Amino acid sequence: MLNSNPLQVNNLTVAYQKKPVLNAVSFVIPSGKLIGILGPNGAGKSTLLKAVLGLIPIVDGEVKIYGGSYREQRKNVGYVPQRESVDWDFPTNALDVVMMGRYGHLGWFRRPGASERKLATECLDKVGMKDYAGRQISQLSGGQQQRVFLARALAQNANLYFMDEPFAGVDATTEKAIIQLLHDLKNQGKTVLVVHHDLSTVREYFDHVILLNGDLVAEGPTEVTFTPENLQKTYGGRLALLQDFVTVPVGTVQ
Amino acid sequence: MGDFWIILTGSLVAASCGILGCFLILRKMALIGDAISHSVLPGIAIAFLISGSRDSFLMLLGASVFGLITVFLIQLLQRGGLQGDASIGIVFTALFAIGVILISRNASNIDLDLDCVLFGEIAYVQWDTLILNGYDMGPAAVWMLGGTLLVVLAAVGLFYKQFKLCAFDPALAAAVGIPVALFHYLLMGLVSLSTVASFESVGAILVVGMLIVPASTAYLLTDRLSTMLVYSVILGVLCSAGGYYAAKWIDTSIAGSMITVAGILFLLAFIFSPLHGLVARFAKRRRLKRVPMPLN
């Protein structure tokens, strides 16, 4: 089962009130890669994630996860929504939020218990937030909240992860910690798709990119896909500005 | 005995409403509770016209159906591009108005008083008793409200994690396979049920207070959802007992006093809550000010 490709999207079309947001997008994602989803605002990056996860209806096309439907493979998939998508004043603490990552595995009636608590604590530890387990979530900084969300995704214990702008509004230290974590996931053979905005870090962070602009502009390994021509097709004019990003040398983290 | 039944009735209303109210305010849907409590009126009137009696079960059914229709219509208008608050305002006033017409049009031949529907009359609850095989089983309202509370407790107890995740992060809930829409309508159905069951005792307008005020007070007092639910129920019970004795003391509307007490408790929590109260926030700001900022 896990031998087939983690994600295959065929001819995916999504529309909001008849206005198409994604236009017949098709691609196949290889296993064990860190993949950046790039494109201008309104290019359909978040929409792509939501459509794949079945959160919004699709007009046409199909999505295969490890060769099956999302419904069949749900427990193999972890999701990190945008941080602003939830109310951080909700009466709960960090550990409790991480335990929510286990709810899908518990079925209809089972309640989270000692084993879920233990796993959630381990996941908080992995993101360096163990000391904040009992902290009310509104009292965490933006970067700490993002780490809690990542810990929750780790608790889902998935093989394929979707992350919607995990680097938005976090400081440099947190960004480094997050990217390190993503590399750890990759080294365990997991596949991670990340909606990303900062073009200057693309070469450094991702093995593989998907360039979106309503249509799929290009998709493939970063070295051959993240080119000035493709970026111009994705973002329109402003090539002078974009060229700078492409010339940033490939580096490794740390 | 009269005191006991009235306070018990009020407490049962407060308990069901307090539990559901927590989820409503956390989902920022306090106004939906308001809308449901008003728009179930035509359901009650229609059930009354069909049966010609105050058969509680039929009323519960009719009103619950209208509660769900309300939620459905509000979502329909929202999806059509109307603002959320405008959709709520349009749907509930329209349905409520139909209810008012139905009741006043038939006021001469039915025994359903508009004042009673709007404001309830908890003092009469003790006279309307349930007779089973010739035995007096106590006030019918207590049985109906007790049953409603059991249903609410069972649903929230069984599906606590689902209700919680749907309130905090519906996107993740849907992604991990929780049927979000089902739990949305289940919550709305329970709100309709509790509202209708509470109708005769506190009325359509004050039940909104029971849904929202104790839950909001509890929200200020704790940082844990489970504790918030317990506090909300305790506060509701305090409101009904306190409100009853206050009403007796100054000889006024019981339901009105109950919600007034709820309002006073909220005000106290708003000012003095050790977590989120004004005093605590002020003290915190002063503490921060006293520490000199390091110059870098």
TrEMBL record, chain A:
Q: Report a single Gene Ontology molecular function.
A: ATP binding
Which family does this protein fall into? Belongs to the ABC transporter superfamily.
Which is a Pfam family this sequence falls into?
ABC_tran
The source's superkingdom equals Bacteria
Lineage of origin: Bacteria, Bacillati, Bacillota, Bacilli, Bacillales
Q: Does the keyword Thylakoid apply?
A: no
This chain belongs to which protein, by name?
Metal ABC transporter ATP-binding protein
List the keywords (alphabetical).
Answer: ATP-binding, Nucleotide-binding, Transport
Q: Which InterPro entries match?
A: AAA+_ATPase, ABC_transporter-like_ATP-bd, ABC_transporter-like_CS, Metal_Ion_Import_ABC, P-loop_NTPase
Where in this chain does the record put each ABC transporter domain?
A: 7-239
Spell out the Gene3D superfamilies in the cross-references. Answer: P-loop containing nucleotide triphosphate hydrolases (3.40.50.300)
From TrEMBL, chain B:
Q: Which organism is it from?
A: Paenibacillus anaericanus
Q: How does it sit in the membrane?
A: Multi-pass membrane protein
Q: Specify the signal sequence span.
A: none
Gene3D superfamilies membership: ABC transporter involved in vitamin B12 uptake, BtuC
Q: Which UniProt keywords apply?
A: Cell membrane, Membrane, Transmembrane, Transmembrane helix, Transport
Annotated GO biological processes are: response to zinc ion; transmembrane transport
Q: What is this protein called in UniProt?
A: Metal ABC transporter permease
Q: What top-level branch of life does the organism fall under?
A: Bacteria
Please state the protein's primary subcellular location: membrane
